[in-house]
Design brief:
Structural class: alpha/beta
Shape: globular
Order of helices and strands: EHEHHEEHEHEEHHEEHEHEHHHEEHEHEH
Helix content: 25-40%
Number of helices: 15
Largest sheet: 6 strands, mixed
Oligomer: single chain
Radius of gyration: 26 Å
Distance between the termini: 46 Å
Strand content: 15-25%
Length: about 450
């Protein structure tokens, strides 16, 4: 049975393609949503871009018919724009002291009226949690926009590591031969992905173990040698060793690192970048490009005084803290590399349109990216360029994404099947005892 979906403003601001994403169902957009889009169309960020693109799509559809009466969509179904004046018994759609002039309440009232009068199911789609709560109180069917949800829950996110119990004889033979074919039983029991790390434990004692990286079913398992140090940084736990292993692998062009504060994800990425860019004996790239999403991205950066680097300083401070640590607080040398553009600080806002070749790119706080921003960044990657996405999916500042729909989560799940990418979830905090405890209990 066809449904009617009423779209909140934030859905269109999050994804301009959303009006084409409901198969052959019917779409309703409250007229007041267009007023909200008009207020945000001048923003110079992803929200403004989606706003302008949505308006273009609606203009194209307008030429095919009357949006007030309904226009056919490419996949079937229709799209219609409704004002509150078309809602019968508008005042009856509210409870108690609800503000009848508030935009969210007007959208809810339109959805409630349609639900009460149409025989087919009606669902209000919104990314606003509070709106969903109000809808529940009013008995209005409501749900989140789930197009870019790649996992049901953040706890099920691909970690990049798989533990497998094996026989002790397998462990002994592995260390004797230094190479073993992937057992056939693994194919039957486990779904393994390229560049996934395997921790093989003796199933009886749990003492003997193997650490290796799975390439594919046709390549043998070999011991993980591990990187001893990176720009003076020594890995402190097995996940950090795994991270350095993929950060230094030339065949891997996209690395995603996830972990709570203090797990070392940004520090590991920067240290490996410096080692492979500035160390003459190990130079693979011509420069390091470092950036992170600016929240908010648009006007705030323009109003700040100074050069682009100076404007980015409030948001890039954590990156510079890591750089200073790796340069042993030698600010002179660090600034020299920045001045010579061996280390480049770039605003994500200005990456669109560029083609970045022969570079080691680090995007910190990538959990604040939308899927569209992620695509914009990754499609800028040129020849001989490696890109690292780091972040904590439990600390999101972008109001349009959550732990299961942000760009970092999307990249992890979408790229896990491809040999060109690798992922590690860092588990243990190494910043300090207090920081680790704080991340755990607060």
């Amino acid at each position: 049975m066809k449904k009617t979906f009423v779209l909140d403003t934030n859905v269109l601001l999050y994804d301009s393609e959303s009006i084409f994403s409901f198969e052959d169902n019917n779409i309703v957009i409250p007229l007041i949503v267009l007023e909200e889009l008009d207020q945000k169309k001048s923003r110079q960020d992803e929200v403004g871009k989606n706003c302008r693109q949505t308006s273009r799509y609606l203009d194209e559809l307008r030429e095919k018919g009357n949006l007030q009466k309904g226009v056919n969509l490419p996949k079937g179904g229709t799209i219609k724009i409704i004002s509150k004046d078309q809602v019968d018994n508008f005042d009856d759609c509210f409870l108690g002291d609800m503000d009848k002039n508030k935009v969210d309440n007007i959208i809810i009232a339109i959805a409630k009226n349609l639900q009460d009068n149409l025989e087919k199911p009606v669902v209000l789609v919104t990314k606003d949690i509070n709106v969903r709560v109000v809808c529940d109180v009013l008995g209005v069917n409501c749900e989140d926009y789930r197009k870019h949800r790649v996992v049901a829950d953040s706890d099920t996110l691909y970690s990049g590591v798989q533990r497998i119990d094996v026989d002790q004889k397998f462990v002994d033979k592995f260390y004797e031969t230094k190479s073993l074919e992937v057992p056939d039983e693994f194919k039957e029991k486990f779904q393994l992905f390229p560049n996934q790390f395997l921790v093989l434990k003796d199933q009886n004692s749990g003492q003997g173990s193997i650490i290796t990286r799975f390439k594919n079913w046709n390549k043998p398992l070999i011991p993980l040698i591990g990187i001893k140090q990176s720009w003076g940084l020594i890995p402190r736990n097995k996940e950090q060793k795994f991270a350095l292993d993929i950060l230094f692998d030339d065949n891997i062009k996209l690395v995603t690192l996830v972990g709570k504060a203090g797990t070392g994800k940004t520090l590991l990425a920067i240290s490996s970048a410096l080692q492979q860019t500035l160390e003459p004996s190990n130079q693979k790239y011509s420069k390091v490009v470092i950036s992170r999403p600016v929240q908010p991205v648009g006007k705030d950066i323009g109003f700040l005084p100074g050069t682009l680097e100076e404007k980015m300083d409030p948001w890039i401070a954590p990156i510079k803290d890591n750089l200073k640590f790796l340069f042993n607080n030698d600010s002179f040398t660090m600034d020299m590399y920045i001045e010579q553009e061996n280390i480049e600080i770039e605003a994500i806002t200005f990456i669109r349109g560029r083609s970045i070749a022969n570079a080691f790119i680090i995007i910190d706080e990538a959990q604040n990216l939308t899927t569209h921003e992620l695509k914009t960044i990754i499609t800028r990657v040129g020849e001989n360029t490696k890109i690292i996405l780091t972040g904590d999916i439990d600390q999101i500042d972008n109001t349009y994404v959550d732990s299961v729909s942000n760009g970092l989560t999307y990249a992890i799940e979408k790229f896990k099947e491809y040999p060109v990418a690798a992922h590690i979830t860092l588990l243990k905090g190494e910043r300090s005892e207090l920081a680790t405890l704080g991340a755990k209990i607060l």
